[in-house]
Design brief:
Number of helices: 4
Number of strands: 9
Number of domains: 2
Oligomer: single chain
Helix content: 25-40%
Distance between the termini: 7 Å
Largest sheet: 5 strands, antiparallel
Radius of gyration: 19 Å
Length: 163
């Protein structure tokens, strides 16, 4: 039976490249010279840690990171920007979590969308991915096209297309 998987995977090498180019830009920015700014990538915790003396400089760091993600063809929806900056002594800190996998609520939205568009297809949630099965390969390919056109707040990749 033909099937494919819907996943959300991050490319750690591209993320590392984006953070490194952001660090290089930070060294050359005259407006951030005296703000004690830093950008660090925590690969184990899937975090980008930002530090700055002022909240405005922290916002500039976020803009730099988002720009570098775009240049590396990374979807900025990978980053969780919902955390607020927190003070720590003289500095403001902010952690940007890198999302990987599909959360249960988003997976339920995807399965409901698939069932609403094409009742011939079966969608099942497996851990942090969604598997879609169907009898007709054309239906599966059409569903991939529909899913690419929708916004589920996470970037989606399609893997393991089997016929």
């Amino acid at each position: 039976m033909p099937s494919f998987d819907i996943v959300n995977k991050m490319d750690l090498q591209k993320i590392d490249n984006a953070v490194n180019t952001a660090k290089k830009e930070l060294l050359n920015r005259y407006d951030l010279k005296d703000d004690m700014c830093s950008i660090e990538l925590d690969k184990k915790g899937n975090l980008i840690k930002l530090e700055a003396r002022q909240e405005m400089a922290l916002q500039t760091l976020i803009d730099i990171i988002l720009g570098k993600f775009s240049k590396q063809q990374l979807d900025v929806r990978l980053l969780d920007l919902s955390t607020e900056p927190r003070p720590s002594g003289r500095l403001m800190l902010q952690d940007m979590k890198i999302k990987e996998g599909i959360e249960k609520e988003v997976a339920k939205k995807i399965t409901n969308y698939i069932k609403g568009k094409n009742p011939k297809l079966q969608a099942a949630i497996n851990d942090d991915q969604v598997r879609v099965n169907g009898k007709n390969i054309d239906d599966l390919q059409e569903m991939i096209a529909h899913l690419r056109g929708e916004d589920f707040d996470v970037p989606l990749q399609f893997e393991n297309f089997r016929s």
